[in-house]
């Protein structure tokens, strides 16, 4: 409304200025001889004063109205925001509560706790201030962390036990293999010894004075002939006769 009066005030002002130069342009009514500067001042001067006052009065009224309305509007909107923040906080609080007692927190609830944490983190800082059960959520997270560490330790211990078992089994297999190889080697040595013994275990003949052993019937056995096993003869230091090649 004050804008309208201000415009009328401006129009009167412009008309007054124009009228100073050419009164007939702005005073287009009444007798010709009265269309002069006096009439311009009378009509437009009054108009200027009137619209100036009206503009001021209405501008003041509008300001007062705004002052009256604005605090109400902003207070209401603050209240609504606060209520919305509180509602969001209460929702998160109830979700924290639904996680249950700290004793009931197990690794199976990991996902639930994670979801509630995400809900809490997605609140803005004002909303977070209204959350009252954050401590319970933190305790639940701490317990889960502890449980996870315990589970990891146990899994590591189990893995180590299995690895130890496997290593022991492997070591035993190697020891068994070695023992079997040793036994086989021993058996072979023994067999070789036996075969060597059996090879040397036939009877040869020596003489009273000679250092050779002979086959039965060798011409060197004409003077004396003493029977002895080949191995004994070799052990005592006799060597084979080059003639009969025993
Ligand atoms: Zn001989």
Layout of helices and strands:
Blueprint: H1 2-21, H2 23-26, H3 37-98, H4 110-121, H5 125-129, H6 134-200, E1 203-206, E2 212-214, E3 226-229, H7 230-236, E4 239-240
Parallel strand pairs: 2-4
Antiparallel strand pairs: 1-2, 1-3
Bound molecules: zinc ion.
What would your notes on this structure say?
The protein has 246 residues and is mostly helical. The chain is built from 7 helices and 4 strands. A 4-stranded mixed sheet has the order 3-1-2-4. Helix 3 runs antiparallel to helix 4. The model has no long low-confidence stretch (mean pLDDT 89). Zinc ion is lined by residues 214, 218, 220, 241, 243-244.
Features:
246 residues, mainly alpha, four-stranded mixed sheet, 7 helices, binds zinc ion
- Beta percentage is 5-15%
Q: Gyration radius, to the nearest Å?
A: 64 Å
Biggest sheet layout:
4 strands, mixed
User: SSE string, helix = H, strand = E?
Assistant: HHHHHHEEEHE
Which shape, going by the Cα principal axes?
rod-shaped
H/I helix tally: 7
| Helicity, as a percent range | over 70%
Bound molecules: zinc ion
- Category by helix and strand content: mainly alpha
* End-to-end C-alpha gap: 152 Å
Taking strands numbered 1, 2, ... along the chain, how are they ordered across the largest sheet? 3-1-2-4
> Mean pLDDT across all residues, rounded?
89
The tally of strands reads 4
